[in-house]
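TEACHING EXERCISE
Course module: macromolecular assemblies
Task: Read the component lines below, then compare them to the predicted structure of the full complex.
Student: A.B.
Group: 4
Components provided:
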Amino acid sequence: MRYIQKAEYGVPPNTSIDESDPLFVQAIARAMQVLSTFHEAGKPLTLNEIAAAGGMGKSAAQRVVHTLRQLGYIDRDADDRGYVPGIRILDHTRDYLRMNPLVARASPVLMELRRNVRERVDLSLRDGLRLVYAARLQSKRETFFATLVGQSVPIYCTSGGRAVMAHMSDAEVDEIIERSVRREITPRTITDPAAIRAKVQEARENGYALALEEILQGEIAIATALVSPDGTPLGAIHIAGSLSEWDAESFCRRFAPLAGEAAGAINRF
Amino acid sequence: MRYIQKAEYGVPPNTSIDESDPLFVQAIARAMQVLSTFHEAGKPLTLNEIAAAGGMGKSAAQRVVHTLRQLGYIDRDADDRGYVPGIRILDHTRDYLRMNPLVARASPVLMELRRNVRERVDLSLRDGLRLVYAARLQSKRETFFATLVGQSVPIYCTSGGRAVMAHMSDAEVDEIIERSVRREITPRTITDPAAIRAKVQEARENGYALALEEILQGEIAIATALVSPDGTPLGAIHIAGSLSEWDAESFCRRFAPLAGEAAGAINRF
DNA sequence: ACGAATGTATCGTACAGCGATACATTGTCT
DNA sequence: AGACAATGTATCGCTGTACGATACATTCGT
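Instructor-supplied answer key:
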């Protein structure tokens, strides 16, 4: 039995909480902290690992895990060797997806788009310095792990991220670049601030953003932004293909108009 | 802006918790209770609604919501009119999906299956009296809301459920039937215990289960069970099509072998 | 067979979270 | 417009919950 794929190029969400907030319930923070331990895990976890990772005592971890287990948010591994996330999580996934108006509005358009495009089509939503994939329509050849709902990627070095940044002020863009932990995820990841700004500018002019192998070797992706009525960028639509089948120019010529149309259909108020 | 689709035919999970458990952390239960309020909601919720639904005081709801908001598990609605589930939920979705060995093992097989089948293909996992959809490869014509990850259906009246029950003892089957709140979701939903037992027996003999419009009008579905090495049923693979294109017999003849093969490929330890 | 690491149980004390209440702000009805 | 109802926000003293240390049980690894 194998357990694979931890965070990898995923981005941890911002969990910098304000200490000494009179309304803040610490027990809840502990619970979520425990659940979040799995973000970095590649295998079922033991109580001690959870306690250590959460910076809490063994007793605290024990009680939290016990409680979450009763409620179904944590399970025992199939072989009873450790703890894994529980199925009740999916109930909340459903709630999130169906109550997010952007997802609801975008989905039919995405499926229509997928009909005209034999490549992977994704919807991502902005959360701080990252984009979180909310809906993914995989192409024929994709592997499962590359296309998980909830997967997240940095804004600074992705097509979707740059499409989003294209709808921000220069100051905001700079702040994102500044605060991001930039590293070369692949050899072709663009990490230089000036170069990123240039790509954002390019996206502004083209109306779409392009990224070549910045996250995954051999992957080409273009994206267009989804914006709220007041112009705030909320997320992006991605079309991703393989460089073994496409060169950048023909990929853009073929898919940029489609991606633009799709975004347009969603963005109308 | 519209917010649609609440629980409907979804099944609420079993949250009957043991009172007076010395290790039970009530604050966590409260937090999850609050998040679970959205299961039944068709629109953004107010503080008072959350408090009332959770059977707690306004202050308690206030603190819980405040905390979950800080952590990103609850957001304000786009128009600042109410509370909605937050995007951090998706991080845990990803954890669940990738750390569940059955999902991991089944996914490539599912995609291969989808390649040979132009209909919807689903993977569901058992949780008590219900099946929870964990992976869904939609066909061309599906609407988004019909194919949400996290959607759940009762065991007693679905193809997947009967495929699962086929791998249980008669006593276990009876218990499921007994404990389920059986109602006619559609006019064709089978709710009579004896009739259900007969359908289970039929599934045992055929190696697959069939359901006709028991959940959704016009839908036909067949399913095969996924079992652990010791024979315990863990979930099912579904193939679902439309009665406007298929009659029961040809649907089975065409897809039963494929569903069986797929389940077989996954079940080999 | 042994030792190390796991999950489980117990218990008195401190402080976290409870509920009542009061305030602020928004939207709605006539 | 003006008043009202309903929303989210803040404050505070008391109670009871969750804390951590420790001891026990059980499984795993070698």
